[in-house]
Amino acid sequence: MFDRFVGGRGSVHLWFALVVLVALLGILRVAMSHWRDGATLLGGAFLLAAVFRAGLSTERVGLLAIRSRPVDVVLYGALGAVIVFVAITIKGGPLAG
Protein backbone atom coordinates (compact mmCIF):
# COMPACT_ATOMS: atom_id res chain seq x y z
CA MET A 1 0.00 0.00 0.00
CA PHE A 2 2.71 2.49 1.01
CA ASP A 3 5.22 0.90 -1.40
CA ARG A 4 4.55 3.23 -4.31
CA PHE A 5 5.32 6.39 -2.31
CA VAL A 6 8.87 5.59 -1.18
CA GLY A 7 11.54 3.72 -3.12
CA GLY A 8 15.18 2.79 -2.73
CA ARG A 9 17.18 0.80 -0.21
CA GLY A 10 16.98 3.42 2.53
CA SER A 11 13.21 3.12 2.70
CA VAL A 12 13.58 -0.32 4.30
CA HIS A 13 14.96 1.35 7.41
CA LEU A 14 12.72 4.43 7.24
CA TRP A 15 9.64 2.70 8.67
CA PHE A 16 11.54 1.17 11.57
CA ALA A 17 13.26 4.51 12.23
CA LEU A 18 9.89 6.29 12.42
CA VAL A 19 8.60 3.77 14.97
CA VAL A 20 11.81 4.09 17.02
CA LEU A 21 11.59 7.89 16.89
CA VAL A 22 8.05 7.88 18.30
CA ALA A 23 9.11 5.40 20.99
CA LEU A 24 12.12 7.57 21.94
CA LEU A 25 9.88 10.60 22.21
CA GLY A 26 7.65 8.58 24.55
CA ILE A 27 10.61 7.56 26.70
CA LEU A 28 11.75 11.19 26.82
CA ARG A 29 8.29 12.29 28.00
CA VAL A 30 8.32 9.62 30.72
CA ALA A 31 11.79 10.79 31.81
CA MET A 32 10.41 14.34 32.06
CA SER A 33 7.74 13.07 34.53
CA HIS A 34 4.94 13.22 31.96
CA TRP A 35 4.32 9.48 32.18
CA ARG A 36 0.81 9.54 30.74
CA ASP A 37 1.90 11.36 27.58
CA GLY A 38 4.98 9.15 27.29
CA ALA A 39 3.05 5.92 27.72
CA THR A 40 0.54 7.07 25.11
CA LEU A 41 3.39 7.76 22.68
CA LEU A 42 4.89 4.34 23.38
CA GLY A 43 1.55 2.69 22.68
CA GLY A 44 1.25 4.83 19.56
CA ALA A 45 4.62 3.54 18.39
CA PHE A 46 3.30 -0.02 18.57
CA LEU A 47 0.12 0.98 16.74
CA LEU A 48 2.24 2.69 14.07
CA ALA A 49 4.29 -0.49 13.74
CA ALA A 50 1.07 -2.46 13.27
CA VAL A 51 -0.08 -0.11 10.49
CA PHE A 52 3.29 -0.29 8.73
CA ARG A 53 3.41 -4.08 9.08
CA ALA A 54 -0.10 -4.41 7.65
CA GLY A 55 0.43 -1.99 4.78
CA LEU A 56 3.96 -2.74 3.60
CA SER A 57 5.40 -5.79 1.91
CA THR A 58 7.72 -8.01 3.93
CA GLU A 59 10.70 -6.81 1.90
CA ARG A 60 9.92 -3.15 2.66
CA VAL A 61 9.05 -3.41 6.33
CA GLY A 62 12.59 -4.36 7.37
CA LEU A 63 13.14 -4.97 11.09
CA LEU A 64 9.43 -4.70 11.91
CA ALA A 65 8.89 -8.14 10.37
CA ILE A 66 9.49 -10.61 13.18
CA ARG A 67 6.83 -13.27 12.66
CA SER A 68 4.20 -13.77 10.00
CA ARG A 69 2.28 -10.66 8.95
CA PRO A 70 -1.02 -11.51 10.71
CA VAL A 71 0.72 -12.38 13.98
CA ASP A 72 2.83 -9.20 13.89
CA VAL A 73 -0.17 -6.99 13.16
CA VAL A 74 -2.29 -8.55 15.92
CA LEU A 75 0.48 -8.45 18.53
CA TYR A 76 1.70 -4.93 17.72
CA GLY A 77 -1.87 -3.64 17.59
CA ALA A 78 -2.99 -5.37 20.78
CA LEU A 79 0.05 -4.28 22.78
CA GLY A 80 -0.28 -0.70 21.51
CA ALA A 81 -3.99 -0.59 22.30
CA VAL A 82 -3.47 -1.96 25.82
CA ILE A 83 -0.69 0.54 26.58
CA VAL A 84 -2.76 3.48 25.32
CA PHE A 85 -5.84 2.25 27.20
CA VAL A 86 -3.93 1.91 30.48
CA ALA A 87 -2.24 5.29 30.05
CA ILE A 88 -5.56 7.01 29.45
CA THR A 89 -7.59 5.29 32.17
CA ILE A 90 -5.21 5.23 35.18
CA LYS A 91 -5.74 8.18 37.50
CA GLY A 92 -3.02 9.53 39.78
CA GLY A 93 -0.02 7.35 40.48
CA PRO A 94 3.45 8.09 41.84
CA LEU A 95 4.58 9.93 38.73
CA ALA A 96 1.41 11.96 38.19
CA GLY A 97 2.15 15.58 37.64
As a percent range, the share of helical residues equals: 55-70%
Distance between the termini: 41 Å
Given helix and strand content, the structural type is mainly alpha
Overall shape: it is: flat
Strand content: under 5%
Following the backbone from N to C, one meets helices and strands in this order, namely HHHH
Domains (count): 1
- By DSSP, the count of extended strands is 0
How is the quaternary structure best described?
single chain
Q: List the uncertain runs.
A: none
Helical segment count: 4
Largest beta-sheet characterization: none
Mean pLDDT: 87
Q: Supply Rg.
A: 15 Å
Protein name: DUF3017 domain-containing protein
Pfam families: DUF3017
Keywords: Membrane, Transmembrane, Transmembrane helix
Task: Briefly say what this structure is.
It comes from Actinopolyspora biskrensis. This is DUF3017 domain-containing protein. The chain is built from four helices and no strands.
Main attributes of the structure:
97 residues, mainly alpha
Fold blueprint:
Blueprint: H1 11-31, H2 35-55, H3 58-61, H4 69-89
Helix pairs in contact: 1-2, 2-4
Describe the structure.
With 97 residues, the chain is mainly alpha-helical. The chain has one domain (11-57, 64-89). It is 69% helix and 0% strand. The protein has helices at residues 11-31, 35-55, 58-61, 69-89. Helix 1 runs antiparallel to helix 2 (35-55) and helix 2 runs antiparallel to helix 4. 25% of the residues are buried. The model has no long low-confidence stretch (mean pLDDT 87).
